[in-house]
Amino acid sequence: QVQLVESGGGLAQPGGSLRLSCTPSGFTLDYYTIGWFRQAPGKEREAVSCISNNDGSTYYLDSVKGRFTISRDNAKNTVYLQMNDLKPEDTAVYYCATDSRFFTVDNFIKMRTHDYWGQGTQVTVSS
Predict the structure, then answer these.
(1) Residue 1 has pLDDT above 90, yes or no
(2) Minimal CB count within 10 Å: which of 5, 23, 113, 114?
(3) In whole angstroms, what is the distance from residue 31 CA to residue 65 CA?
(4) Beta pairing, strands 46-52 & 18-25
(5) How confident is the model over 67-121, as pLDDT tens digits?
(6) Is a pLDDT exceeding 80 seen at residue 61?
(7) What's the rounded Cα separation, in Å, for the pair 7 and 109?
(8) Residues near 127 by beta carbon (within 8 Å), at least 6 away in sequence
(9) Could you tell me which of 114, 123, 75 has the C-alpha nearest to residue 96?
(10) What is the maximal distance between C-alpha atoms in the chain?
(11) CB of 123 within 8 A of CB of 10?
């Protein structure tokens, strides 16, 4: 059974940093695209970033470009989202997600749903 486990959320001040981690069990990231999504209260879920473990290509939401960095450590079977210069509008529940087959980054971000989701981790940016 595939499970995605997120960690690293919490409270940060504006301008601060957090690093989220996503580690799947029962699943190897080597050949799949994996992404981070977020949902704030009263808002639709949006794709924040994703990375193709096939060729390393990435996607970033415009509002996080230059502040967030997605990376992977295949040896640890873990994907990270380093979030710097956090803003109050980054406050949301963050989820990682992936699928049981490979999708390019361009297709991945257009998909309305994915096969596997983590339980979510709360990120709150407030002074």
Answers:
(1) no
(2) 113
(3) 25
(4) unpaired
(5) 999 999 988 999 999 999 999 999 999 999 999 888 999 999 999 899 999 999 9
(6) yes
(7) 22
(8) 13, 14
(9) 114
(10) 41
(11) yes
Exposure b/e, 74-106, CB count within 10 A at least 16 = b: eeeebbbbebeebeeebbbbbbbbbbeeebebe
CA 34 to CA 58: how far, in whole Å? 10
User: Which of 42, 32, 43 shows the shortest CA–CA distance to 79?
Assistant: 32
Find residue 34's DSSP bridge partners. Answer: 51, 98
Token output for 22:
């996503």
In angstroms, the first-to-last Cα distance of the chain is 40
Pairwise CA distance, residues 26 & 50, whole Å: 20
Return the pLDDT at 42. Answer: 94
Confidence of residue 55 (pLDDT cuts 50, 70, 90): confident
User: To which H or E segment does residue 111 belong?
Assistant: none
The per-residue DSSP string of 31-74 comes to GSEEEEEEE-TTS--EEEEEEETTT--EEE-GGGTTTEEEEEET
